[in-house]
Amino acid sequence: MIKVLIVDDQPLIREGLGSLLNLRKEIEVIGTAGDGAEALEKALSLTPDIVLMDIRMPNVNGVEGTKLLKENIPQVKVLMLTTFSDSEYIFDALEEGASGYLLKDMSTDTIVQAILTVFHGGVVLPKDFTSNVLTEMRLKNSKEESSSEAPIPFSLNELTSREREVLSHLGKGLNNKEIADALFITEGTVKNHVSNIIQKLELRDRTQAAIFAVRYGITTF
Fold first, then answer.
1. Pair 101, 199 in one domain
2. Sign for the pseudo-dihedral over CA of 123, 191, 71, 28
3. Could you give the angle at the alpha carbon of 207 between the alpha carbons of 199 and 155, nearest 5°?
């Protein structure tokens, strides 16, 4: 049973989503919270496996809430709940340790599958929304850097040509099967390449690898 904490400032969404998820045998909604600060308080006492976190909330928003959770309970997985208008905040949430994001209007089946994916160590980057997020990332990078691109880290030189190709596809939001199909290799081989990339670049997970690819222009490889 996967223990889930739902965080949203709107009671209707908290209660409605909670009721729907509690109908699934593999999920138990153990609590709700109205902002990021309350999320940390509840998580410390309830020990959820997954936190479904809204991005836009008063007081402590979802990005700040994710940071608080990952600093205090590193093992907890955070899955962001967002809308198309929130894409500018997704980059920050991913950098703070979120394992992906979902649109609020997605079906219950999609949300349940995302929870299962994250619980088992995966990352959820909806392809239809990823292009919006990548655009925001690039805009943010261009504003923060005086040059057109950030300096390329020396550790990138440790990657093989194939690993760079895989990294490029990670930056486009592709999953292992999609990368395998694009490169005509097996999913197992992709998984090994992803593990090597994370280790060589000293990253936390594949989400951080995707962010790395975008930040340093590897998605154009």
1. no
2. positive
3. 35
Question: CA angle 52-26-121, nearest 5°?
Answer: 60
Q: Please state, for a pLDDT cut of 90, what percent of the chain lies above it.
A: 58
145 CB-near residues (< 8 Å, 6+ apart): none
Statement to judge: residues 74 and 11 lie in one domain:
yes
- Residue 135: the pLDDT is 63
Give the CATH number, domain containing residue 213.
1.10.10.10
Q: Same structural domain for residues 104 and 179?
A: no
184: left (phi over 0), alpha (psi -120 to 50) or beta: left
Give the number of other Cβ atoms within 10 Å of residue 33's Cβ: 25
The answer to whether the predicted template modeling score (pTM) of the entire model surpasses 0.90 is no
Sign of CA dihedral 90, 91, 94, 99: positive
Counting other chains too, the contacts that 9-13 makes at CB distance below 8 Å and 24 or more residues apart are 9/34, 9/35, 9/54, 9/56, 9/57, 9/58, 10/54, 13/54, 13/104
Whether 19 and 84 share a structural domain: yes
Burial class from Cβ neighbours inside 10 Å (0-12, 13-18, 19+) for residue 19 reads exposed
Amino acid at 22: N
The single residue listed with the structure tokens 């699934």 is 24
Asked whether 170 and 213 are in contact (CB, 8 A), the reply is: yes
In this predicted model, what pLDDT tens digit does every residue of 14-54 receive, in sequence order?
A: 999 999 999 999 999 999 999 999 999 999 999 999 999 99
